[in-house]
Specification:
Blueprint lengths: L1 H10 L4 H17 L3 H9 L9 E3 L2 E3 L3 E3 L10 H5 L5 E7 L12 E4 L4 E4 L8 H14 L6 E5 L10 H12 L5 E5 L14 H22 L5 E5 L5 H13 L4 E4 L19 E4 L3 H15 L5 E4 L5 H10 L3 E4 L1 H6 L3 H15 L15
Length: about 375
């Protein structure tokens, strides 16, 4: 209620990127105020429950709802996001070197479509900065949820040498991550999506898994690494991508990134270029999850992302084959209380359908 009637009307009068910076700055400030995080937890926290907690890749997730990459690119508000009910957080996309991203303006709201369009272009402060942020959190020993690090290549790095950027991010950030996500599906970095195909994908995955092995030996700690794919792949393309990923030592898939499709949109901002997130992406991302689950026989863990606003949205993705689910646009439109609503609703849906644990619902619509 506080967000809907007070904060949201103010934020939605501001440029989306300005509102974003204010939000991240405010959450970062709450981490420094005595009792600030406790207040956030009291207002928006989610109590861990046996039926929604999840063990995956040897990692404990207190609940299945995570924050997708893009909102906290530089890891400046991780502890605050941990306090408002997320089961995990994906920081980034981070690149080895800092870069400003694409020209402003580059982010647009589509209120009546409950969607966003962005063409940010991996704007971030670089891997060393993110490492410093995460090292500080680790030193405090107060981080309660898993941290995924979403990694990409710098804009000026060619596809032929892209693997070096991904490997460099792994080297710098390995001590501070719980798992990694290889982003090859953003539509806002030139030619990035070409890395999803054929030999380019195979060579990239071979390079990053080898680097993960090196870091595992160095730190005596094995971490999973996932790949985030686009929703705009055709059926044959998706089958080939999943086949290549399955043949590698990749731990899982995030489905999906933003879409270039504009089907069914009504807002004038739909003419803007960039990746679309939010409600219009929901069905397509669920269809991709279902296809991956079928193609892999349910053996490849999936994180579902795209258009999750309600418990029913999350449950649909879980029943299609997702083990975990991420939100982004819903947080913008619904506010920090959305995690409480989704988690409470998931517990009710599991009880309604006779499941004792959320793992029992994974892929039931496909099986």
């Amino acid at each position: 209620m506080l967000y809907r009637y007070l904060a949201k009307p103010v934020f939605f009068k501001l440029d989306p990127e300005t509102a974003h910076h204010i939000t991240i700055g405010g959450l970062h400030a709450m981490e420094k105020i005595p009792g600030g995080l406790s207040l956030l937890s009291m207002m928006y926290g989610v109590q861990e429950t046996p039926e929604l907690s999840m063990d995956l890749w040897g990692i404990r997730f207190p609940n299945p709802i995570g924050l997708a990459a893009g909102l906290d690119k530089n890891g400046q508000a991780v502890r605050a996001f941990s306090s408002i009910g997320f089961g995990f957080i994906e920081v980034g996309t981070v690149t080895p070197k800092s870069q400003p991203g694409n020209e402003l303006p580059r982010c647009y709201r589509l209120p009546q479509d409950e969607a966003l369009i962005n063409r940010m272009g991996f704007n971030n402060l670089g891997a060393d900065y993110l490492a410093d942020q995460l090292a500080h959190i680790k030193k405090l020993k107060k981080q309660q949820i898993p941290i995924a690090v979403n990694i990409g290549k710098n804009k000026l790095t060619s596809n032929e040498t892209a693997m070096n950027d991904y490997m460099e991010c792994i080297r710098i950030l390995y001590p501070y991550a719980d798992f990694f996500v290889v982003n090859i599906s953003s539509p806002n970095t030139p030619d990035l999506r070409k890395l999803q195909h054929g030999d380019e994908l195979r060579k990239l995955l071979e390079a990053v898994t080898q680097e993960m092995d090196v870091q595992k030996e160095k730190y005596q700690r094995q971490l999973p690494i996932l790949v985030k794919i686009a929703p705009d792949l055709g059926d044959e393309e998706l089958e080939q991508v999943v086949e290549t990923i399955s043949a590698s030592r990749i731990s899982g898939i995030i489905a999906t990134n933003t879409t270039l499709s504009r089907d069914g949109l009504t807002h004038q901002n739909s003419r803007e270029s960039g990746g679309l997130s939010g409600k219009p992406l929901a069905q397509r991302s669920t269809d991709v999850i279902r296809s991956i689950y079928k193609l892999t026989g349910g053996r490849m863990p999936i994180i579902g992302s795209g258009g999750v606003f309600t418990a029913e949205d999350a449950y649909e993705k879980i029943k299609a084959g997702a083990s975990l689910v991420e939100i982004y646009t819903a947080l913008i439109f619904k506010g920090p209380g959305v995690n409480q609503v989704i988690n409470r609703g998931l517990s009710q849906l599991l009880k309604r359908d006779g499941f004792n644990h959320i793992s029992e619902a994974i892929g039931v619509d496909v099986k």
